Amino acid sequence: MKVLESLIAEAEVARVLQICNACRYCEGFCAVFPAMTRRLEFPKADIHYLANLCHNCGACLHACQYAPPHEFAVNVPQALARVRLHTYAQYAWPAGVGRLYQRNGLVLAVAVWLGLAFFLILAMALKGSSSGSGFYAVFPHGLMAGLFAPVFGYALLALGLGVARFWRDEDPGAASAPAVQEATVNVLKLTYLDGGHGQGCNNDDDRWSQARRHAHHATFYGFGLCFAATSVATVYHYVFGWVAPYGWTSLPKLLGTLGGIGLIVGPLGLAWLNVQRDPRQGDAAQKPLDLGFIALLLGISASGLLLALTRWPLLAPAMPLLLCLHLGAVMALFLTMPYSKFAHGFYRGAALLKWSVERRLPTTLRLGSE
Amino acid sequence: MLDVLVIGGGNAALCAALVAREAGASVLLLEAAPRDWRGGNSMHTRNIRCSHDAPQDVLTEAYPEEEFWQDLLKVTGGLTTEALTRRVIRDSATCRSWMRRHGVHFQPSLSGTLHLSRTNAFFMGGGKALVNAYYRSAEALGVALRYDAAVERLEFDGSRFVAAQLVGGVRIAARSCVVASGGFESNREWLREAWGCNERGEWPADNFAIRGTRYNQGVLLKDLLAQGADRIGDPTQAHMVAIDARAPLYDGGIVTRVDCVSLGIMVNQAGERFDDEGEDFWPKRYAIWGRLVALQAGQIGHSIIDAKAVGRFMPPVFKGVQADTLPQLAQQLGLPETAFMQTVNDYNAACRVGTFDHAVLDDCATVGLTPPKTHWARPIDTAPFFGYTLKPGVTFTYLGVKVDERAAVHFAGQPSANLYAAGEVMAGNVLGKGYTAGVGMTIGTVFGRIAGASAAAAARASA
What we know:
The structure holds 2 protein chains of 2 kinds.
Chain A: H1 3-23, H2 32-36, H3 44-53, H4 59-62, H5 76-91, H6 100-103, H7 106-127, H8 135-138, H9 141-169, H10 177-189, H11 211-240, H12 251-276, H13 287-309, H14 319-336, H15 343-358
Chain B: E1 2-7, H1 11-22, E2 27-30, E3 47-49, H2 65-76, H3 82-92, H4 95-101, E4 106-107, E5 120-123, H5 127-141, E6 144-146, E7 151-157, E8 160-166, E9 171-179, H6 188-195, E10 209-210, H7 219-226, E11 231-232, E12 238-244, E13 265-267, H8 282-294, E14 301-305, E15 321-323, H9 326-333, H10 337-350, E16 351-352, E17 365-366, E18 385-397, E19 400-401, E20 408-411, E21 414-421, H11 439-462
Parallel strand pairs in B: 1-2, 1-9, 2-6, 9-21, 10-18
Antiparallel strand pairs in B: 3-5, 4-5, 7-8, 8-9, 11-19, 12-18, 13-14, 14-18, 15-18, 16-17, 20-21
Helix pairs in contact in B: 1-5, 1-11, 2-3, 3-11, 9-10
C-alpha cells in the first residue's frame, strides 16, 4: 500500500475531526462522534479506530453545515472510508500481503471463481465417474473437506491476526461482560445504521431508509444460516454417519435453503444500494471491492439453491456443472476472504468492542461548558 | 392565482410554507440561495429554546413560561413586546410534536452543553438536518420550491401585497405573502454604514466576519422599510461574538468560537488587557466579547493561555499559536514584547489563587489590577503558551419590520391585510437586543407557523 497515500488519508481525517470536535452537532447519529469528543488530538491509532467504527451511514454528511461546497469541505464518511481500506492493508497478516485489498475487485473475484470452477470441471471430466453417489460421485467428501478446511482455516487465522494487531494498536483495556454484550448487540442489530432515531441511514440523498440495514441483515444472517447448514451437515457426516444428500425437511436443507434465499435477497439489495449511493458518501473507489464480495456471495447462493433443485430429475443433468460452480464460488470466497470486504466485519466488530470498553472508562478531559 | 408566496428558505420560511400548505393553500417558496446553500442561518443552528412544565423527552426538569419570560426580559433589558413574546414562549411548549411530524429529530444536549439540557431541545444533526427534513416534507406535501430565486422588490396596492419582482425580471403575483428572508448581516456595505468610522479612522465593520449565510443581504428588509413598513430595532446593533480571526468571511458557524478567554487573559494589539475575562461563565459572556473586541484597534484581541488551560475548554477549530516562552509568543502574535510582558507580569503578580474550579465562580481573582480578573485568575507561567487571535463575528442584525400577533406587517401603525413576516426579519419585535441560546429558532418556528396560518387564511378570504 502506498505509504504517502495513507498518510494523506490520515491527515485529512485529523483535519476533518478537528472541525467536527469544535461542532459536535452529529453526536446523536452514531458512536464515532461521542468517541471523538473523548479526544483532543487524532494520532494514527485513533484515526484507525474511528475509521473502523464508522458504518458509512451518511447521516453526518447530509447534515453537515461544513460539507462541500463549504470551504472547510468536511466529508466525514469519505475521509474515514479512505483510511479504512488502508487500515485493513496495514494490519493485514502476513505483512505486505495487504496490498491485495487494492486489487481485490469485482473482476478478480469473478475471475478466481470462474477459474476455480473451470479447474473443477476439468478435473471432473478427466476423472470420469467414481464410486460415490450424488455430489460425492463427482468429488469425494474427503477431497472437498481436505481442500476447504485449510483454506478456511488460513482465512480465519489471517483475519484474526490482523484484528489482533488492530486491537493492540490502541488497547482500551480488558473488555467487561457488559461491554462484550453491548458490542455484540450492536453488531447483530447494526445499531449504528439506524440513524440514532431509528429511521435508518442515508443512501442516495438525505432520505432515511432501513433498506441497507435490512439488506445487510439478510446477507449476514443468510450467510450465518448457510454456515450453520454446513456445520450441521458436517456433524451428520462425521458423528452420525448420515451421508448427503439430505431430504427437503432435514435440518441442513432447511437452514441452507433459508440462508440461500437470504444470501440472494441481501446481496442483491446491497449491490443495488451500493450502485445508487451518493458518490460523496464513502469512497467510490472502493466499490469494486464491495461488489466483488457481493458477487461471490450471490454466486454461492444462486449456485447452491440451483444445486438443491437438481434432485428434481429434469435438472439432474446440470448437477455436476452447478456443483463445480458452487464449489468454485465457495473456494474463491475463502481464498480471497482475508483480503476482501469480508474483513470489514471483523474490524468493525473490534472497533465496536473498543467503543463499548472505552465509553465505560472515565474521561480524562474536563472541558467545561462552551 | 397562487395563494401563498413565501420569500425565504430558512426555518421560518419553511414553517410558514408547511403550515400554509397544511391549511390547503397553494404555496410557492422562493429561496435566494442555490440548493447547496439553502436554509439561511438556520443551517448553522443547533437547538430551540422551549418552555415546559415537566421533563419532556430530551428536556430535563421544567422551564416554566414565567422563567422564560424573565430570561428574555433580562437579556433584552425590556426591549421586547410582551404580548408577542409571551405568545412565542407559550407556543414553544407545543411546537415540537409538529416539528417531529415534519421529520425533525431531537437529541439530548451535546457534550459541553449540559447547562442547556433543561431549556433547549437539540436537533439531531443540527440545523441543516432540520432544514433538510422540512424541505423533504414540503416537497412531499406539494409545496412548490424554487432555488436561486432572489426577490428584488415587492409590489403593493397601499399596504396590500400584490406581487414580487424577482431578480431577472420574473413577476410572481399571489393572494398573500410571507416574508422570511432574514436580516441584513451579510450586507457588508450596510454594516459599514451602520457601524461608521471610529475615532482611529477605521471602519470597524470591514474587519467583521459573518458567522452565517452570505445570502442575508437585507434586500427585502430595505425594500419594505422604503415602502413604508414600520421599523423595529436598532440598525446599528448586531449580535456579535469574538471568533477566531482565521474564520472564513461567511458561514464559519459555531466552530470558529474560541472558549478559552475566561481561562487566561485577553490583550489587544498594544499588548494590554481591556476587560475582566473572569466576570461570569463563558456562555453568559461570549457575546459581550464580540463588541469589546470590535472596540479595540484593528478589531483584534488575543486570548492568551498556558498549558494549565489545555483540555479545559471546548476544542477550537484552529490550533492556537504555540510557544515555549512568553516573549516568543508575543513575537509570533505580532505583539510589542515589552508591553505584553509588562501586562503578563502585572497580571501574574496580582493573582490571588484560591481553589481553582472552572465549573463554579471560584475564588481565584486578581488584587489591585485594572481591569481586574474576578474569577479563574491563575498566573500564566506554565509552558507551552498558546495564543488565539480573535475578531468580531456577526451572528445577526436586530433591525426588522413591526408585526402584530398574527404576524401581519404594520404600515403606519396598521396591519397589512395579506403581508406577513417571520424569523429574523421580525425577530426584533421579541428580541430588541441581547440574545439567549436557541431563542432565534423559537421565534422563527412560532412566527413562521403563525405567518403561514395567517397567509393561508388571508388567501382563502380573498379567493
